[in-house]
Model the fold of this input.
Amino acid sequence: MSDLESFREEVRDWLNANCPEEMRRPMESEADAVWGGKKGQYSEPQLLWLERMAAKGWTVPEWPTEYGGGGLSKEEAKVLRAEMRTIKARSPLQSFGIWMLGPALLKYGTHEQKLEHLPRIARGEIRWAQGYSEPNAGSDLAALMTKCEDKGDHYLINGQKIWTSYADQADWIFALVRTDFEAKKHEGISFILVDMDQPGVTTKPIKLISGKSPFCETFFD
Ligand SMILES: Cc1cc2nc3c(=O)[nH]c(=O)nc-3n(C[C@H](O)[C@H](O)[C@H](O)COP(=O)(O)OP(=O)(O)OC[C@H]3O[C@@H](n4cnc5c(N)ncnc54)[C@H](O)[C@@H]3O)c2cc1C
Done:
């Protein structure tokens, strides 16, 4: 038997023993999705499934194990996904941290930044929002004006983000801010990670015509 085939058997056995029955049914509503974070309220099977998958590193199967991942190869991760589909297992965790921030940190972050943030993303402890768009910076993202000043021991941020999906549910936000007002429009922009639980950071939901919406405005005062 090839290594990949024995891995498949191992995965199949583990999933059968560890995926709760309730997590093998299609999601019926948004409430069935687990986004993690400090504000999330989840059922026992949802939490159990998340905990078990995170302990294996399988919420982010291809990330390195030292950062909370499963350390799987592309082929192994494909096997895991296929076996999950076979038993109709739900994704244990949806996350902008996994889809958007994690890959950027893996490529550009320092070892300390990776150690601090990636394992908490992998375990679903911190829910992240994305703060790029502004009222006057949509498709033309380089028009962004949120100002960030280096004050030595802290950064001072003033400005507004818009269309920040689920920001009212998030714990931290990764944002693009202007750190150099003299530079050309497409330069002088920095990528910053902000704890939203601090004075001066507020969010306000935006209602769409349907009456609900994931979108928010996020203010830095
Ligand atoms: C599902 C979803 C989730 C999102 N979540 C987030 C989020 O969490 N955080 C975040 O920061 N952003 C998010 N965005 C992006 C944000 O909502 C805006 O859609 C995006 O910034 C585009 O800006 P805008 O809506 O102001 O449109 P505009 O940039 O004003 O564009 C309006 C129209 O004009 C057209 N247009 C723009 N420029 C030109 C040009 N030079 N020439 C010709 N036509 C042009 C565009 O194609 C478009 O049809 C999300 C978007 C979607 C769809």
